[in-house]
Amino acid sequence: MRGRFVRGTWRWDASVYAPPHFRRSCSYDAFVPDLLDLGLGDYELSSRLAATLSEVEQRVSALNQTADPALVSLSRLLLRTESIASSKVEGMQADARALAMAEAKVRLKRSIGQQAREIIANIEAMEHAVQRTAGSERFDVDHLCQVHAALMNRSPTSRLAGQLRDSQNWIGGNNYNPCRAAYVPPPPGEVLPLLRNLCDFTESDLVSPLIQAAIAHAQFETIHPFDDGNGRTGRALVQVILRRRGLAPRFVPPISVVLSQRRDSYIEGLVGYREGRLTEWITTFAAATAQASDLALQYSNIIHDLLGYWRTRLQQASNPRADAAAWEILRQLPAFPAITVSDAVHATGRSQPAVNAAFAQLEDAGILVPFGLSRRNRAWEPQGLLDLIIALESGEVATSRLSTPTNDSRETDR
Predict the structure, then answer these.
(1) Strand, helix or coil for residue 33
(2) Which helix (H) or strand (E) holds 358?
(3) Which of 185, 263, 357, 400 has the smallest set of CB atoms within 10 Å of its CB?
(4) Do 250 and 192 lie in a common domain?
(5) Same structural domain for residues 391 and 357?
(6) How far apart are CA 280 and CA 410, in angstroms?
């Protein structure tokens, strides 16, 4: 066992409602994990597992060595997919097209539903974690709180955003006391010292990046430092570590896509970590990372084909000048399941009139398909992209069924 139990007594707070049979005092055992060893310590693994980890890290490196500059925008697509899959682990589901529409509405300052707001907040939190936090000189508890704040700012419990818990929480059982919970994390007084130790561990380079990410994630979930949003924040931490250690400097493997499909084994792996079955947990984590990296690499190839298909359509439709805004917007499209004029202006630095003209060319070529919003507040779907994203979020390998159009078929394809 990687820690110790601390006996606690739960006393009912008369200011908080609870059914009569939950108002009695009761005892529970909170788990306080051991501090992480900042050196090699007890993280030395069998030669077989070490070889497996080396192979998995090579797969992540292969994904990040994808050199085509046209695929730079794939980074946000993979990060977005990781964020949505992380929400799915928590039971938050959303139709991909509806979510793309909701994202566009947010950027157009229109209202959307609560669950869509939370998932979009998860996407923003993951982007914050990987693109900003990962680049900080040193990773500390404040950075964890910033990621959590970005995640929770639009949730029903936004008052808790970025705040470490000051009361006992628990997993499973009932909503009124921890006495029959499946797991009770450490008491609140233990949280900050444990998190400081965790952040110190993430700064070490004495263990491999993959082992570090696996252990840090499991330790974070064991500490459960926030009242809500721990799972999503903990999976964002994985991405921070992989970026900071230089294993995934460009493309983040969507590990949560795999974990969301194997939720039971994922949870069992975290339980195994607490019980001292470290090798079992690292093996589970490594397998998910390997599958996610392979999936992302396959999609990078498919996105490359999709870009080529769009280029051909644009050439056949209007063949703009080489420096036209339409070509620059086209290169940015894989990052936008739904795109607005203001998105394109921001992404390309081109003027709004130039972007409007480019959108007309791209729509005429059948590359951009307008969503059902008003003409004043309009968004477009890049043709074929959402189908690929839907398959990626499901952990499937989509095969490109795109074919190069002829001039005669262009109008009917629209």
Answers:
(1) strand
(2) helix 352-364
(3) 263
(4) yes
(5) yes
(6) 54
Rounded CA-CA distance 190/219 in Å is: 13
The residue from 295, 330, 364 where one domain ends is 295
For 92-122, write each residue's pLDDT tens digit: 777 777 888 888 888 887 888 888 888 888 7
Looking at 245, 278, 295, the residue that finishes a domain is 295
Would residue 46 count as lying in a domain? no
Question: Helix, strand, coil: what percent of the chain each, to 5?
Answer: 60, 5, 35
pLDDT digit string, tens, across residues 283-298: 999 999 999 998 888 8
Domain range for 400 is: 298-413
Q: For the chain, how many residues are written? A: 414
Identify the CA nearest to 57 among candidates 225, 214, 176.
214
Evaluate whether residue 47 is within a structural domain.
no
Q: Which of 316, 324, 337, 350 is nearest to 382 (CA)?
A: 337
pLDDT greater than 50 at residue 306: yes
- State whether 24 and 153 are in the same domain: yes
Condensed to tens digits (0 to 9), the pLDDT of residues 13-49 reads 888 898 998 988 999 999 999 999 887 666 778 889 9
225 & 109 share domain: yes
